[in-house]
Design a protein that fits this description.
Order of helices and strands: EEHEEH
Number of strands: 4
Distance between the termini: 26 Å
Number of domains: 1
Largest sheet: 2 strands, antiparallel
């Protein structure tokens, strides 16, 4: 449930209540936990060695390493894109 900021009653800014923020945070934590468990289970059941073409060489690598590295690179890309979008929004304001 959203409420108006009590310090400025004439303001059109609607701020979420603490209850809404806590619920959103809890939902994000649950979603992150579920995704984390899925990635861990997927990685653990794929322990075979695979041929990987790295940027500078080719070699045999456990698939779990490839999965973990891909997951971490995806998280890093997400964080960078979110930071870029946030910076762009703040400069436009």
């Amino acid at each position: 449930m959203a409420t108006r900021q009590p310090t400025d009653p004439s303001s059109d800014v609607v701020r979420p209540s603490h209850k809404d923020v806590d619920r959103r945070r809890q939902q994000r934590l649950i979603a992150a936990g579920v995704i984390g468990v899925i990635v861990v289970v997927f990685a653990v059941i794929n322990l075979n060695d695979v041929k990987v073409h790295w940027l500078v060489s080719t070699g045999q690598t456990p698939l779990i390493v490839v999965i973990a590295l891909s997951f971490l690179l995806g998280i890093a890309a997400d964080r960078l894109l979110l930071a870029r979008a946030k910076k762009k929004r703040s400069t436009e304001s």
